[in-house]
Amino acid sequence: MDRKQLVILAAIVAVFLFAYFVNFTSPDVQNAIHEGFYLLQWYVRYHTLACVVPAMFIAGAIATFFQKEAVLRHLGPKANKAEAYGVASTSGTVLAVCSCSVLPMFAGIYRVGAGLGPASAFLYAGPAINVMAIFLTARVLGFDLGIARVIGSILFAIVIGLLMAWIFRSDEEERTAATMRLPDPPAAKRKGWQTVLFFATMILFLVFSDWANPSTTRIETADGRQMNVSVLIRTGETYRVQLQEPLGDHPQGAKLTLNIDEIVAEEDVTPDSYRWVAWIYHHRWYFATALFAATLTMVWRWFDRDEIDAWMAETWSFSKSIIPLLFGGVLATGFIGALIPDELVAGWVGGNGPRANLIASVIGGMWYFATLTEVPILEALIGLGMGRGPALALLLAGPALSLPSIAVIYSVIGVKKTMAFVALTVVMSSTAGMAFGLFFS
């Protein structure tokens, strides 16, 4: 039985055991099922069309229009390491998107011939050094955590990439040789600047469509309560919010579920230094629409029907293999997360010892964090007793990994390389957390 069939068998056995043993009459299990579908609905409504779908088209374009020789020259195993790892490890400052956007692009450049090392560095760094997340971390959680997060993210991207390339160097030599045996694509029908402009426009569309709101939200309910909150999840009927200040018997950091019909007023509360970011958020669809129109114009003027058909075929290939894994991973994350209360997590990650940092890294690697939501969630956990070392460990492991992303990474590079990437991320994050905790506890 080959590896693919073993994976299918394992999935069937896992579903069987879950359905056989889980007590569906338990209120905790019923609530966890609801939470899983709440998170999935939020993901579908507010993230898929604005983030995942554009990323699929970009990945399809990379696989269709990138010349393998150019990719191998700049990102291949024998490329200049300073150039390859420098670009890959700082890409997140330009992209400013989450892991779900980076995953299809990672799959695209890896399929075209990028080396495992630079591709892994891009995979880690893309979501890890989101500029808004770095600044929000420094403002809310402390300047020390903000600086440690950006330094750790760039350093980890380079080290993880180099280690992945070294561990699997023989596999990479075989893959490069196989890539070079592929037939050369037809000569480009566009000038270089046209290709660059085309990809830049699509990436900018993704950046604006997935632009995050840095503001907290002031809500007034029908019974007269006013509260400043971070909105964690929005569904068709409810808001899942986290209090930014005490409210009655609820402490700061408490999570509440509000029915939409209870809310009579809602407004942003934006720090002065983030007003321009919030302004872009509220006008993002104007920018995105202009960039979408520009992309369509370029496609109409510069591409023929055969090229468009090939692009759509590659986009569909990525979509059918990646999107189901993302949806399943998000559903599982919501279900598992609901079974683990914040108070329990805070108890596991109190102090700055090896156990607390390792647990924080593992939790960060399993949870799915929407862009910027890791900051208020960590603020609440720190208030419940989480150490600052484990907080950094979670910040370093969280953006790059989650159950959905691990499933997608496995589908692209296989089980051994995925296990190595996850292990390197978790071990390095927990080690950095312990070192940080020694000096900034």
List low-pLDDT spans.
Answer: none
Strand content: 5-15%
The total of helices stands at 20
Termini Cα gap: 51 Å
Sheet of most strands: 5 strands, antiparallel
* Morphology: globular
Backbone CA Rg: 22 Å
What can you see in these coordinates?
The structure is a single chain. The protein is α+β, with helices and mostly antiparallel strands and 441 residues long. Helix content is 71%, strand content 7%. The chain has two domains: 26-189 and 303-440, no CATH class; 216-269, SH3 type barrels (Roll). The chain has 20 helices and five strands. Strands 4-3-2-1-5 form a five-stranded antiparallel sheet. Strand 1 (216-221) and strand 2 form a beta hairpin. Helix 16 (354-366) crosses helix 20.
Brief synopsis:
This protein is α+β, with helices and mostly antiparallel strands and 441 residues long.
Give a quick set of tags describing it.
single chain; 441 residues; alpha+beta; SH3 type barrels; 5-stranded antiparallel β-sheet; 20 helices; 5 strands; 7% strand; globular
Give the helix/strand layout.
Elements: H1 3-21, H2 27-65, H3 68-75, H4 81-89, H5 92-95, H6 99-112, H7 116-128, H8 131-141, H9 143-167, H10 169-181, H11 192-209, E1 216-221, E2 226-234, E3 238-243, E4 255-259, E5 263-269, H12 275-282, H13 284-302, H14 305-338, H15 342-348, H16 354-366, H17 374-383, H18 388-397, H19 403-413, H20 415-440
Antiparallel strand pairs: 1-2, 1-5, 2-3, 3-4
Helix pairs in contact: 2-6, 2-11, 2-14, 4-7, 4-9, 6-7, 6-19, 7-9, 8-9, 8-17, 9-18, 9-20, 11-13, 14-19, 16-18, 16-20, 18-20, 19-20
